[in-house]
Design a protein that fits this description.
Length: 219
């Protein structure tokens, strides 16, 4: 996924950023709400991680403005505000989850995965696809009963196809999914990742529409 992290604590922000990257997702990290707003308007994100106390304002009004203009990107609040009333306010403003600091980074990863699955319409982490059995929560893959190892990038790419079965995904869409604004992307990076994924999953698992993009196959 492509994640927008809005957090002004540099130590926590760096730790969260590194955790998200270790999970194979791309992340754009900003420390102010005006930067976050500009990022949301300029790019496409799959998830927002939102602190509630930023140097230029509070996260709740920002979230309400997001939802008010029809922005449906899932949001997980990360905050030290731990009162029940704070949680209620955040969820009622449109948050999908609420995580109180300090939190375990592995729990954050699990909550990110859970929210992402709900938004794709399939909360079940187990997916059976032809000879493949995929456990999205544990990031385990078996092909005909045998384990298959994917790199973090390959997992994210495969999940992008699983979330949009039958949909044609352009190279630009996949690049947005895998890389953040400041990443240097080789011109053939997507082709390389798709080629490696096909070798592990089976060539027919990912179909090519020449000049248009890729889609998940029916095998």
């Amino acid at each position: 996924m492509r994640v927008l992290l809005i957090e002004d604590d540099t130590v926590l922000g760096a730790a969260v950023r590194d955790q998200i990257r270790a999970d194979g997702h791309s992340v754009d990290w900003v420390t102010r709400l005006d930067e976050a707003d500009a990022g949301l308007r300029a790019g496409s994100f799959d998830l927002v991680l939102l602190d509630l106390m930023l140097p230029d304002g509070r996260g709740i009004p920002f979230l309400r403005r997001m939802r008010g203009r029809g922005e449906v990107t899932p949001v997980i609040i990360l905050t030290a505000l731990d009162q029940v009333s704070d949680r209620i306010e955040g969820l009622n403003a449109g948050a999908d989850d609420y995580l109180v600091k300090p939190f375990d980074l592995e729990e954050l990863s699990a909550r990110i995965g859970s929210v992402a699955r709900r938004y794709t319409g399939n909360p079940n982490p187990i997916i059976n696809l032809g000879p493949l059995e995929v456990d999205l929560a544990a990031r385990r893959l078996h092909k005909e009963g045998k384990p298959v190892s994917l790199t973090a990038r390959e997992w994210v790419l495969f999940e992008a196809f699983l979330q949009r079965p039958g949909q044609l995904l352009s190279k630009a869409m996949l690049e947005e999914h895998l890389y953040s604004f400041d990443d240097s992307v080789e011109s053939n990076a997507i082709e390389v990742h798709v080629s490696r994924l096909r070798k592990k999953l089976g060539h027919a698992m990912i179909e090519t529409e020449r000049g248009l993009g890729y889609r998940l196959g029916k095998s």
